[in-house]
Amino acid sequence: MATLVTGGTGFVGSNLVKVLAEKGHDVVSLDIAPPNELVKQYLDPVSSRVEWVQADIADAVSLSNAIAGHAIDKIVHMAVYTAIQDEVERAHSRTVIDVNVVGTANLLDFARDTSIGRFIYVGSGGSYAGSAIAPTDRPIHEDYPQIPKGLYSITKYASELMTTRYGELHDFSTAVVRIGGPYGPMERPTGHRAVMGVMCEWTGKAMRGEEIQVAERARGDFTYVLDIAEGIRVVLDASHLPHPVYNNTRGVGYNVDEVVEAFQKALPSAKFVQPVLKQSRTRAAGLSRPRLDSSRIQDLGMVYKYDLVSGVKAYMKWRSEFGEIA
């Protein structure tokens, strides 16, 4: 039996494929494009356990043809059109809906028709209502209200609800895993991901010796992507899931000072050109996105291995080995 991972050549997807294969899963990695050389190189140590297939998940026939004949018993659905800027939303509104909602419906139909053992939908912590202004002295629990605004977060939340309800109606196990602040290997521009995270931008500049502008958006609950992938695997493989939704982040709200300090420990030559304001030294002050409560997933056995310093060091080491990507 095999685990289907949609979006398996993407940033988080390729890391999930790596973690699953290392833990003994046979993986069918599905994406709209074939794996490029970077993906193949990154996953070469586990390539014997990975099979690549191509399909447009918004096209039910394309999807069915791609995965027909594979003995799939688990699905992790993370293929998504990431549109977080107004101009991208405006230009690709219908595509966002087709990929993010219709694609999810097609995969849920497949799960229903083939008696899938478990279906995991990978959601986004960014869809919590008022995340930019929510209280920052305590983590955000899974039951915190969601009132998403942009098409990306609207379609992600709709897919969460669809996943849970399909499982209830058609009697298969489902869970939503909300991730937030991922950074690390394999983040790079793709056809469905044009905007890079601040950690990708900063590590690139630091390693090129360029000056880094300290920005408000550098604050948040940053989690190394291999930890994110392991958290998804923990939920996928759990014998029992007592909750329908699991936050999956380290659960630490790093402020600007702490991010700068981590970079300077990883690469002392990193050049930050704006002084970090003293008022940012309180962890709760001015966080652009609050930390998430990850106690549920930790109760399942998840252990986060990378703190910010070790994560930034590991990321820079990977970038030095794999070359310039962004």
List keywords for this structure.
globular; 11 helices; 7-stranded parallel β-sheet; alpha/beta; two-stranded parallel sheet; Rossmann fold; 326 residues
Structure description:
The protein has 326 residues and is of the alpha/beta class. The chain has a domain of 196 residues: 3-Layer(aba) Sandwich (Rossmann fold). A seven-stranded parallel sheet has the order 3-2-1-4-5-6-10, sandwiched between helices. Helix 5 runs parallel beside helix 6 and helix 9 packs across helix 11. The longest helix has 21 residues. The radius of gyration is 19 Å and the shape is globular. It starts with a strand and ends with a helix. About 3% of the residues have low confidence.
How would you summarize this macromolecular structure in one to three sentences?
With about 325 residues, the chain is α/β, with parallel strands linked by helices.
What are the SSEs and their pairings?
Elements: E1 2-6, H1 11-22, E2 27-31, H2 37-42, E3 50-54, H3 60-67, E4 72-77, H4 86-91, H5 93-113, E5 118-124, H6 151-170, E6 173-179, E7 182-183, H7 198-208, E8 211-212, E9 223-224, H8 225-237, E10 245-248, H9 256-266, E11 271-272, H10 295-299, H11 308-322
Parallel strand pairs: 1-2, 1-4, 2-3, 4-5, 5-6, 6-10, 7-9, 8-11
Helix pairs in contact: 1-8, 5-6, 7-11, 9-11
